[in-house]
Amino acid sequence: MATSPQILVPDWPLPAGIHAAVTTRLGGCSLGEYASLNLADHVGDDPAAVMANRAELRQVLALPGEPEWLRQVHGTEICRASGRRPTPAGLPPPEADGAVTMQAGRVLAVLTADCLPVLACSRDGSVLGAFHAGWRGLLGGILEAGIWAMEVEPEEILVYLGPAIGQERFEVGEEVRSAFVADDPKSAHAFRQGDGDRFHADLYALARHRLRRLGVVRCSGGGFCTATDRERFFSYRRDGRTGRMATLIWRECAE
Are 127 and 150 contacting, i.e. CB atoms less than 8 angstroms apart? Predict the structure, then answer.
């Protein structure tokens, strides 16, 4: 039997009528390594359990519709959720690592289990965005693509950084650090020397730096570590085979 999802409410200055939420692994009905609120249908979980978890999420959050689920590939493609409704059940979701919308009632969502979920909202609430930012996406320009797709002056955009793997647990090779530093030498501050040729990367610092470079200065969130907080979060780096959390944003439908 499904249990009620336990939800984190992002602490950031959203305009009236805009809602955001971050799921934890708590609640739902998935079993084993997916216990228990897995919302991803591509990780090997029982499809019926995923469907039940998604239905429970819609009910608990009183969502105005099915979220715009994406087939995330660590790229920079942005889905524009406009006049059409979300992808019908049975059809593959759009291949993208971010989505933007100007339409009330459209629910944007990204799935993560260590990568950084990023929500964005214009100060007047007219444009929303949700982006999936692992290190490959950050380096490739997912945040740049997402912010540009919103077509709002960057200083008018509010951003929230959701739960991701913390620097203490996110170890990468010299090639990853070198790629970021070659792209922007100021990225070096987000890496700390580890053992041998390994480095500890700070996804939050990398994201904030790239957002500032774009002109986005209002950035909330950060400070989580999905890998160390086993009770609340799924973590691919920690467990390998595991579920996914969802980070969502939507605007109320007009009465």
Answer: yes
Cα gap 191→208, rounded to integer Å? 14
Does the model's pTM come out above 0.70?
yes
How do the pLDDT tens digits run along the chain, 255 residues long? 567 889 999 999 999 999 999 999 999 999 999 999 999 999 999 999 999 999 999 999 999 999 999 999 999 999 998 765 666 666 789 999 999 999 999 999 999 999 999 999 999 999 999 999 999 999 999 999 999 999 999 999 999 999 999 999 999 999 999 999 999 999 999 999 999 999 999 999 999 999 999 999 999 999 999 999 999 999 999 999 999 999 999 999 875
Q: Pairing relation of β-strands 157-161 and 116-122? A: antiparallel
Q: Which domains does the chain have, with CATH numbers?
A: 14-251 (3.60.140.10)
Q: Are β-strands 245-251 and 108-112 bridged in parallel, bridged antiparallel, or unpaired?
A: antiparallel
Q: Which residues of 16-53 are buried (b: 16+ CB within 10 A; e: fewer)?
A: eebbbbbbbbbbbbbeeebbbbbbbbebebeeebbebb
